[in-house]
Amino acid sequence: MPEMIPLGWFHTILGIAAVLSGFYTIIKYRVITLEQRSGKLYALLTLIVAGTALGIYNQGGFGIAHILAVLTLAALACGVIMEKTHLFGSVSKYFQALGYTSTLLFHMIPAITDFLRRLPVGDPFIDTLEDPLLQQFHLAFLLIFVIGLIAQFLWLKKRASS
Q1: Residues in Cβ contact with 11 at an 8 Å cutoff, skipping those fewer than 6 apart
Q2: DSSP H or E stretch at residue 54
Q3: Which are the contacts of 105, defined by CB distance < 8 A and separation ≥ 6?
Q4: What mean pLDDT value characterizes the chain?
Q5: What sign has the CA pseudo-torsion 67, 68, 70, 74?
Q6: Could you tell me how many helices (H) and strands (E) the chain has, helices first?
Q7: Which long-range contacts (CB under 8 A, 24 or more apart) does 132-139 make?
Q8: Which site in 11, 47, 93, 95 is 20 to 30 Å from 59, CA atoms measured?
C-alpha cells in the first residue's frame, strides 16, 4: 500500500469527522437535514471529503474509490435538492433521507477498505479487495444501511401522520 500523501491525511481526518457527525445527526435527529447544525457540518465535510477523494491517485488511476466519490457527490446533491425544492412533494423527504444516508454508506466502504489494507502497519489485515473479511464488512455496512433507511422511512411516515 502506498504511503499517505498530505492530501490523503487531510481527506482521512475530515472523513472521520464527517462519519462521526453523520452518525451523531442520525442518532440524535433520526434523519440528516441542513436544518441542524450537525447536518450542515456533515454535508460540508462530505462535500470536501468526496472532492478530495477525486484528487487522490496513488492506487494507479481512476478507480472504485473515485466512483464512490462521484456517487457521494450525486447522493449529496440529491439530498440537498429534495430538501430545498421538495421536487417530488410529500415523498421528497424519503428521497432526501435516501440521498444523505447513502453518503454514509459511501463513506464507510472506502474507509474500512483503507483501514484493513493499511493496518496494522507492516502486516495489514487484508491483502486483496476480494478478501472475505472485507466482503463481510461491506455486507454488514449494506445491511446496516438498509435497516437504518427503513427505520428512517418509518419514522418519517409516523411523523407525517402525527
Answers
A1: 49, 52, 53, 56
A2: none
A3: 141, 142, 145
A4: 94
A5: positive
A6: 5, 0
A7: 137/112, 138/109, 138/112
A8: 47
d(CA 113, CA 90): 37
d(CA 44, CA 22): 11
User: For residue 86, what are the contacts with CB-CB under 8 A and spacing of at least 6?
Assistant: 92
Residue in the structure block whose three cell numbers are 494507479: 60
pLDDT, tens digit, 9 for 90 and up, residues 123-157: 999 999 999 999 999 999 999 999 999 999 999 99
Category of 62 on φ-ψ map: left (φ > 0), alpha (ψ -120 to 50) or beta: beta
- DSSP 8-state code for residue 91: G
pTM of the model: 0.93
C-alpha separations of 81 from 73, 74, 130, 140 in Å: 12, 10, 36, 29
